[in-house]
Amino acid sequence: MIRNPILPGFNPDPSICRVGEDYYIATSTFEWYPGVQIHHSRDLVNWTLVRRPLERASQLDMRGNPDSCGIWAPCLSYADSLFWLVYTDVKRYDGNFKDAHNYIVTSPTIEGEWSDPVYVNSSGFDPSLFHDDDGRKWFLNMQWNHRTESYGGAPKHPAFDGILLQEWDPETKSLKGPIKNIFAGSPLGLVEGPHLFKRNGWYYLTTAEGGTGYDHAVTMARSRAIEGPYEMHPNLHLITSKDAPNAVLQRAGHGQYVEAADGQAYHTHLCGRPMPPKRRCTLGRETALQKCIWEDDWLYLAQGGVVPDVVVPAPTSVEAVEQPSRIETRFEPGPLPKEFQWLRTPQPERIFSLSERPGHLRLYGRESIGSWFEQALVARRQEHHSFRAETTVDFSPETYQQVAGLTHYYNRHKFHALVVTLHEKLGRVVTIFSCPGDFPHGRMVFPIDSGISAPEGPVDLAMEIRENDLQFFWRAASGGSWQAIGPVLDAGVISDEGGRGEHGSFTGAFTGMVAFDTSGRGRAADFQRFIYESPANPGNS
């Protein structure tokens, strides 16, 4: 059986592609580097992260991209012995404009090196590429209309100005022919995330609608001609939880159709699992997969209705491989362990090293926590509603402007951090920095003021999340017992709905290691290990 979400934690906008017996899902990564996560499976049950293809400056440079910008809604496909990846790099979020630039990269293999990007257009975001059975290729994206009061966090329907279609010429690597607006969406509005496929002579168009909050939906339409007109699905929406407030999987929308090798039908979608009492999705937007059936050349959920299920049949009787409840990372020379990412910059050598001090991850203090340019923050996704994270940091600050430690991070307005720094009277201290959703100013609070004095040498730092609550701990690495430090903090604010609220941001929570040095001296901090531990056998709790 398939248990949803199949990709827990921040993994939104899933585009699925099957090549023979292999399935691949590409998801959005926004401001996190390298860009686009690609997971692989052979059974639709067990998934493994195998590639982040946008990994060098010639492909992607997000320095200066605001929070929740960067890589939106990739589309992964396979044709002509190549994998094709289409994506948007969004450079602006607030105000009337988006500045959304669309690109295509290719590779003969998922695991290999991907090409430099080919620029396509900038008329809107959420692009996709459809390979028709006559050999022609078609590029789709939503069209953004800036002439409305469609400010970030309060989207207005007129800004989402339909789905554009234009032919793509792989020889000239450019668009050609007329641009046609083929689909205005349903009355739900906010039409985006288009994907085309063809079956029995019908062109099927699935789109995301309703915004990426609790009114989200997968809308379906069909036409005998690729340019339309498109008729709406009898239910309008193939998948949605907007009218089912008690469903486990909320915010269901934005996905793609796939057929198993034996013809069984499935459809991906993003979802959120809100925590009571404030209905905040602390794991961000996750990826789920639904079993579908065909009736009268229309696709329906196999269980009936439109509300997604947590458990659905798999193509074969395969059991899920149990994931370890404790993952301890020891840092060795070589590539960064695959579960970790950093923010925005294509120059990771400026912010970290795995070889400068063997057995350690060295972070070079750069700009402040929350910087949109060069921030030394290396972190992994939160994948459970409850977990514990630990690290050991060796750091000798010379000024209060030099800081390093452990963080629970969403963006510049939403984070908590347990850090080591210097105080002019107390000496080296352990203290807490917190920004519990202060938009737009990003002002921090200091729950234990200047902090408490810490002995020389490495320091162990830890955090425990129990649903909406966060407690920090610390001890000298030379020995001693863990000591709770500071009050219980609001972990639930580290979520899409925290602070600014729904549609204000839409990524996910990370936990990891951070350092900054606003003096400009680049003071280094060495991290010896990182532990992520979830409850034993939690499923997808």
List the helices and strands and how they pair.
Elements: E1 2-3, E2 15-19, E3 22-27, E4 32-33, E5 37-41, E6 48-51, E7 70-79, E8 82-90, E9 100-107, E10 118-121, E11 128-131, E12 137-144, E13 160-169, E14 174-183, E15 192-199, E16 202-209, E17 217-223, E18 231-240, E19 250-253, E20 257-259, E21 265-272, E22 286-295, E23 298-301, E24 311-312, E25 326-330, E26 340-343, E27 352-353, E28 361-364, E29 376-381, E30 386-394, E31 402-411, E32 414-423, E33 427-436, E34 452-453, E35 459-466, E36 469-476, E37 483-490, E38 510-517, E39 524-533
Antiparallel strand pairs: 1-24, 2-3, 3-5, 4-26, 5-6, 7-8, 8-9, 9-10, 11-12, 12-13, 13-14, 15-16, 16-17, 17-18, 19-21, 20-21, 21-22, 22-23, 25-39, 26-29, 27-28, 28-39, 29-38, 30-35, 30-39, 31-32, 31-38, 32-33, 33-34, 35-36, 36-37
The major sheet is characterized as:
8 strands, antiparallel
Q: Which band does the percent of strand residues land in?
A: over 45%
Radius of gyration: 23 Å
Number of DSSP strand runs? 39
Description:
Pfam families: GH43_C2, Glyco_hydro_43. By secondary structure, this protein is an all-beta fold. It contains no helices and 39 strands.
In summary, what is this structure?
This protein has 541 residues and is mostly beta strands.
Observed structural traits:
single chain, 541 residues, mainly beta, 8-stranded antiparallel beta sheet, 39 strands, 0% helix, globular
